[in-house]
């Protein structure tokens, strides 16, 4: 078997704000790991044989890797903009492939059926054409000009509006969503999905947000994102097979799924197949 | 609703006009279980993206592309279904005969037993004949139609005489619970040995 | 009336659902239960030393048990939901209200373990959850034989609202609902009620609405 190409990637393994000296026992790609606050005040991550693993703290989370990361964690320049509120949404465990969790995050066509009356509503089910590309310089998947009807854009909003989204996949189990920001036209709200692969068919999902919103309480913001993700969870745990099929004959995409098609192609090209199924079984 | 057949899991559903159909329990789009879907009129739709399917299994509608007529190649595998005396029968492949009829009997309830048919036979103290187990439990005659769900589980359909009154039907339901408990206890004590 | 609420808590959802079904307007105060553990903070501990949510506050009344909230909401706004027409019905309501705590301790704890990584012996919790579901299924079969669609009568009562959330969310804790046809029908009957609201993990019954068509000219 070839070396797992995903081994050298950074993965979220805990909330930076909740680190303590007792630590958190968790796992990364099948290997038990421990995440704790060291005596020197820095985060420590150890592998199963006690070896120290690489650590970085970014976007509210502790990140680590079983391998030897060749580059720094991807940048989210917007995260450092002043005036944004940074929201730690917390962890949710899902019995599915980490790659399925990311692919669902990239999908908008399910909004009317799964996030009914929040992110979408019948009869506004049409997904207009949008642009998808693999940006070779950054080596990232991007979808832009994604537009979809949203029945209730904000708590105060009467009636629906068309919301614009951009999606970005900078790492095999991480995705960033940019969404039009009603209080600040011209800026984008940032909503991320950071996925910690525990096993090929089990993951801990850490959503995180950087928003322009001075009105809504922190608890409300957390509840909103947890609501959305928990609506997805019952889908993700009922997809067959649990692993993401990379065999094109296994599932049928349409034009609305071009982001997913590009994501699968990009995974395959890089050999990012932890959590994927290559041949139909 | 979800169900199991030797050919794999199925989504069993009844249309508004009352026709039952059995689909492979997987939407070909993104693999979501169709048994979580919803029925509108004569179609079953997937809960994930709303793709809807006719009783023959062909895809009729993809909501993300309302103007598109789905190609005929998109569809789900179906299995023949027959509704006979209140019992739904599924055939794997084309059926060669009609399902059996149980004249004078009416279905009461279906229960999953976490044990194989052998444990149920041991609990009942008698052998099943053609999938039908006749036994007495709690001084109550029980007729059970058994459908194996793999080796370690059995779907047990409880039948009662037509015209049985509520008190006796409740007693039959409770007797079936007792039999299930016995069968599962037998299995547990076997495992413990 | 103020409800200290966590959107993912089935016990909080009981109060929200009861209020929606009986037309009571609640003042919702969101609590950062996860990840912030705000329910263990000084403000909420002062209201409820047990450190649990939901908490329902109305004047100087403070309720911390969801079953009591159901009784209070029903008695105030829609007494028919109390289900105390006959001795039999009143007893059945109490039976299922008490039973609902077993659902919380089994299916609820399994769900917290599987979803939010709380400690617990998952195999035992799931097994206890399955045992409780079997009891509920048997109870509903008997009710159906009696010609009644709900747990205590042919009308829904607070007993149904007390049992529904943890049952409907059993799959979140890795406990399948596939083997229970009567629970399935009962769950659909509840989800079809006028005023019913969902919570995350319980999908909309899209079949209640005909396939909507876009009016010409509407975007």
What do you see in this structure?
- The complex is a heterotrimer of chains A (281), B (193) and C (219).
- Chain A is α+β, with helices and mostly antiparallel strands and 281 residues long.
- Chain A is 16% helix and 35% strand.
- Chain A has 4 helices and 17 strands.
- Chain A has helices at 98-105, 111-114, 218-236, 258-270, and strands spanning 11-15, 24-28, 31-37, 43-46, 52-53, 55-58, 61-64, 85-88, 92-94, 131-135, 140-150, 161-171, 174-180, 188-199, 202-211, 244-245, 276-277.
- In chain A, strands 8, 9, 10, 11, 12, 13, 14 and 15 form an 8-stranded antiparallel sheet that branches. Chain A has a 4-stranded antiparallel sheet with strand order 2-3-4-5, with no helix packed on it. Chain A has a 3-stranded antiparallel sheet with strand order 1-7-6, with no helix packed on it.
- In chain A, a hairpin with a 7-residue loop joins β13 (174-180) and β14 (188-199).
- Chain B has 193 residues and is of the alpha+beta class.
- In chain B, 18% of the residues lie in helices and 36% in strands.
- Chain B is built from 2 helices and 14 strands.
- The longest helix of chain B has 27 residues, at 166-192.
- The termini of chain C are far apart.
- In chain C, α1 (10-22) crosses α6 (158-168) and α4 (87-116) runs antiparallel to α5.
- With 219 residues, chain C is α+β, with helices and mostly antiparallel strands.
- The chains are: A alpha+beta (281), B alpha+beta (193), C alpha+beta (219).
- Chain A binds chain C through residues 15, 18, 88-93, 95, 113-114, 116-117, 122-124, 149, 162, 204, 217-220, 222-223, 226-231, 233-234, 237, and chain C through 6-8, 30-32, 34-36, 38, 114-117, 171-172, 174, 200-201, 203-204, 206, 209, 211-214, 219.
Quick structural gist:
By secondary structure, chain A is an alpha+beta fold. Chain A is built from 4 helices and 17 strands. In chain A, the strands form 4 sheets. In chain A, strands 8, 9, 10, 11, 12, 13, 14 and 15 form an 8-stranded antiparallel β-sheet that branches. A 4-stranded antiparallel β-sheet of chain A has the order 2-3-4-5, with no helix packed on it.
């Amino acid at each position: 078997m070839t070396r797992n190409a995903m081994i050298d990637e950074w993965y979220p393994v805990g909330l930076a704000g909740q680190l303590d000296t007792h630590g958190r026992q968790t796992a990364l790609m099948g290997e038990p790991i421990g995440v704790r606050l060291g005596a020197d005040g820095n985060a420590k991550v150890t592998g199963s044989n006690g070896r120290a693993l690489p650590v970085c703290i970014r976007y509210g989370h502790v990140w680590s890797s079983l391998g030897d990361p060749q580059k720094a964690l991807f940048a989210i320049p917007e995260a450092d903009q002043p005036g944004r509120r940074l929201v730690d949404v917390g962890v949710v465990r899902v019995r599915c492939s980490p790659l399925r969790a990311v692919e669902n995050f990239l999908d908008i066509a399910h909004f009317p059926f799964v996030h009914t009356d929040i992110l979408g509503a019948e009869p506004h089910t049409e997904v207009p054409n949008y642009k998808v590309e693999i940006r070779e310089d950054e080596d990232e998947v991007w979808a832009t000009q994604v537009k979809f009807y949203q029945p209730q854009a904000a708590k105060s909003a009467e009636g629906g509006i068309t919301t614009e989204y951009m999606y970005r996949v900078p790492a095999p189990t991480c995705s960033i969503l940019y969404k039009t920001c009603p209080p600040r036209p011209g800026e984008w709200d940032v909503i991320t999905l950071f996925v910690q692969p525990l096993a090929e068919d089990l993951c801990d999902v850490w959503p995180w947000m950087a928003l322009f919103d001075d009105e809504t309480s922190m608890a409300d913001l957390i509840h909103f994102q947890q609501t959305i993700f928990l609506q997805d969870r019952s889908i993700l745990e009922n997809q067959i097979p649990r692993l993401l099929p990379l065999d094109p004959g296994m599932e049928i995409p349409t034009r609305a799924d071009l982001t997913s098609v590009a994501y699968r192609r990009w995974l395959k090209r890089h050999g990012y197949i932890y959590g994927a199924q290559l041949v139909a079984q | 609703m979800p169900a199991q057949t030797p050919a794999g899991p199925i989504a069993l559903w009844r249309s508004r006009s009352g026709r039952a159909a059995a689909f492979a329990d997987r939407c070909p789009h993104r693999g979501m279980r169709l048994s979580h879907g919803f029925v509108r009129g004569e179609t079953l739709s997937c809960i994930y993206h709303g793709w809807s399917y006719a009783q023959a299994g062909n895809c009729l509608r993809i909501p993300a592309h309302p103007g598109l007529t789905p190609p005929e190649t998109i569809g789900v595998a179906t299995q023949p279904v027959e509704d006979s005396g209140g019992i739904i029968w599924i055939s794997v492949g084309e059926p060669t005969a009609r399902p059996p009829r149980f004249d004078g009997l009416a279905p009461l309830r279906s229960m999953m037993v976490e044990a194989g048919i052998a444990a149920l036979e041991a609990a009942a103290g008698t052998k099943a004949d053609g999938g039908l187990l006749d036994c007495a439990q709690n001084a109550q005659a029980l007729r059970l139609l058994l459908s194996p769900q793999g080796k370690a589980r059995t779907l047990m359909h409880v039948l009662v005489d037509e015209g049985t009154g509520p008190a006796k039907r409740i007693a039959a339901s409770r007797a079936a619970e007792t039999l299930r408990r016995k069968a599962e206890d037998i299995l547990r004590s076997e495992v413990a040995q | 009336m103020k409800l200290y609420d966590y959107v993912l808590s089935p016990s909080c959802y009981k109060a929200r659902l009861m209020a929606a079904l009986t037309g009571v307007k609640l003042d919702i105060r969101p609590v950062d239960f996860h990840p912030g553990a705000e329910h263990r903070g000084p403000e909420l501990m002062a209201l409820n030393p047990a450190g649990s949510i939901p908490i329902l506050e109305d004047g100087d009344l403070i309720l911390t048990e969801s079953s009591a909230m159901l009784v209070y909401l029903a008695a105030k706004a829609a007494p028919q939901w109390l289900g105390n027409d006959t001795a039999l019905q009143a007893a059945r309501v109490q039976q299922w209200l008490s039973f609902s705590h077993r659902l919380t301790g089994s299916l609820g704890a399994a769900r917290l373990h599987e979803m939010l990584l709380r400690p617990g012996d998952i195999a035992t919790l799931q097994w206890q959850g399955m045992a409780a579901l079997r009891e509920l299924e048997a109870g509903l079969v008997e009710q159906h034989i009696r010609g009644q669609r709900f747990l205590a009568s042919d009308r829904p009562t607070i007993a149904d609202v007390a049992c529904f959330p943890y049952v409907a969310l059993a799959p979140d804790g890795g406990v399948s609902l596939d083997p229970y046809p009567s629970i399935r029908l009962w769950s659909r009957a509840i989800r079809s009620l006028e005023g019913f609201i969902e919570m995350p993990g319980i999908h909309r019954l899209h079949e209640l609405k005909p396939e909507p068509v876009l009016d010409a000219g509407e975007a």
